[in-house]
Specification:
8 helices; alpha+beta; elongated
């Protein structure tokens, strides 16, 4: 690998890492990520130029993490068999950097969502346990489409999964305005 190639790979990884960190902190734009790179790695920013760094930040923010998506897709199949007796329809699972982009929002605090029409679960990368818990919460919604996250029936289903040893954590269900919400 040529030195410039290594630096480009380093810049891409930095763009993804910085973008993930900024999203975790409440959100970002490609421009803000680009500015962060200019601060943290001014040599790289100067070497590649602001326009190219901005394009890399745009790509990073709109990225899917394909290896992790494939792993979560396999877990969807395994969880469907283990916890739902294979009753759920096949859904595609995506793990992405910025959920807002995939949902069609300019910015937002959403960590994941289900597209029932196209049968897609989109998860924003957070961490392993939170992503598994969110996947299972969305699988409950798929199993019970008339039940939303605010209803006792949803919480009862979460308790059933927990009793079966499913990696779903009630810390992902927050009490807000006297009602439960999945974050």
């Amino acid at each position: 690998m040529w030195p410039l190639d290594r630096e480009l790979v380093r810049l891409r990884l930095l763009a993804i890492s910085l973008t993930l960190g900024l999203i975790e902190g409440g959100g970002t734009t490609p421009q803000e990520s680009c500015e962060g790179i200019a601060e943290e790695e001014p040599e790289l920013w100067e070497k590649f130029g602001s326009e190219r760094v901005l394009r890399l930040c745009e790509q990073a923010q709109r990225s899917e993490l394909p290896e992790e998506s494939a792993r979560l897709q396999e877990l969807f199949q395994e969880f469907n068999q283990r916890y739902f007796a294979r009753t759920l329809p096949n859904y595609t699972v995506r793990l992405v950097v910025d959920v807002s982009y995939w949902r069609g929002w300019e910015t937002g605090l959403s960590k994941s969502f289900v597209d029932f029409q196209h049968q897609v679960i989109t998860l924003g990368y957070v961490n392993e346990s939170k992503n598994l818990s969110e996947l299972l919460c969305h699988m409950v919604r798929i199993a019970h489409p008339d039940c939303n996250y605010l209803e006792p029936a949803f919480l009862k289903e979460i308790e059933r999964l927990r009793a079966m040893g499913a990696p779903v954590d009630l810390k992902d269900i927050r009490l807000a305005k006297g009602k439960y919400l999945v974050q």
